[in-house]
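> @MW can you paste both from yesterday?
MW: sure, first one:
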Amino acid sequence: MEKVRIGFFGVGGMAEYHMKTLQQIEDAAITAVCDLNKARASEMANQFGAKTYETLEEMLDAGVIDALYICTPPFVREGIEEAAAARGIHLLSEKPIGLQMAEVRRKEQIIRESGIIHSSGYCLRYLDTVQQAKQYLADKQVDMVLAYRIGGMPDVGWWRLMDRSGGQLVEQSTHQVDLVRYLAGEFDFVEANYAQRHIQRNYPEATVYDVGIVSFGLRSGALGTISNTSLSRHLGRGDVEFFGHDFYVSVSGMTLRIVDDTQDITVTSEMDFYLEQNRAFVAAVKSGRQELVLGDYSEAAVTLEVTLAANESAEAQRRIVIPAV
């Protein structure tokens, strides 16, 4: 194919940023958009030179796209991946890829059996600093992990409802969970405690927590915690720290720090990781090389399983073991 023709289902802020980076990729062309918000769809279509479609099926059947970006909230995912896979249309599914694990596993099997290229929204894997950390940690024994996702609350009503967003760990801190998996290995168990400390003063209808602590064990034997809150107006953090007996590694936003017996280095990336993620996906579609994608749908499913298990743990007030895949 000369250019990879791309359609978008859901054209909110995340989709718009993807579109802006795709404009910088010579082998990509944005050709179609579809959204329940018709005015927003028209706005994005005019801005990026695409055509609007009334329904997903109409867009998929028009013969104008090779790949589909799914940028809807996690509660609006029914039938989308399956419809694209059935037509041989490649997929990038933004995170989180769903809220029901059985449904996500069913979709995963369909996607894998279809043979299409598939990617997910775990963009931090593409950072050069994350790749440097991965290389450094490859032969190290990680003994403790501390992760943080601290900040404010997205200003959308659906985010404040557990049955629509899954809460902060599923919808935001999932990036930190994914980095732990990518850099230190798979989760063995989680134990979570959640609380509503401030949120219902402003949003009485809210069912999500605004403070959460997750303790976990990895299959390697390492232990760790993830601290996340959406009530912090004055401080934001998105860090993951790895401790061994003779080293320390921190991935804090765009900055990597490595300390050991011979060095104490700090590197700050200037990379646009969304651009690199989209460049890899477009190249994978054009070449048919799935291995160019660093975080496929199956990887996203494993990360989702950890975060949903934490939700289950908080509700049941007990440890949840993560099944081996």
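MW: second:
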Amino acid sequence: MNDFSLLPVLAGTAAFFAVGALWYGLIFAKPWQRAAGLSNSQLRAGNMKVIFALAFAFEMLTAMVLWHLLARTDPPGFVVMMMALGFAVGVMIPAVGINYLFQRKPLALFLIDAGHLLVGMAMMGGVFVWFRS
């Protein structure tokens, strides 16, 4: 297994990105918008091409780091899932939580965003298990 392989990294990134599209587009669009305190006009004012491109780039960076760790350790599939979920539960979600505490963000926003990170990382882990089998 190479330290870097573009196809699984892109597929893992795409899986995470797809979760975000469903999460914030279909499943939690209105609750997220309310919790984030964003009006329809504020949402329309953003440059969506830049926002989506940067979101994809950040998710790809996460995928690259996880893939690199998998390449270095060559764990079995269940450990891949533990590592992916461990990233979410042990690093990503606490980092968001710390920021939200100081920014006085509502619990509802934290739970929606934390859920996205958890499910997104689970999907990325699943894609990586599939690529490694």
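> thanks! The two ends are 11 Å apart (CA to CA).
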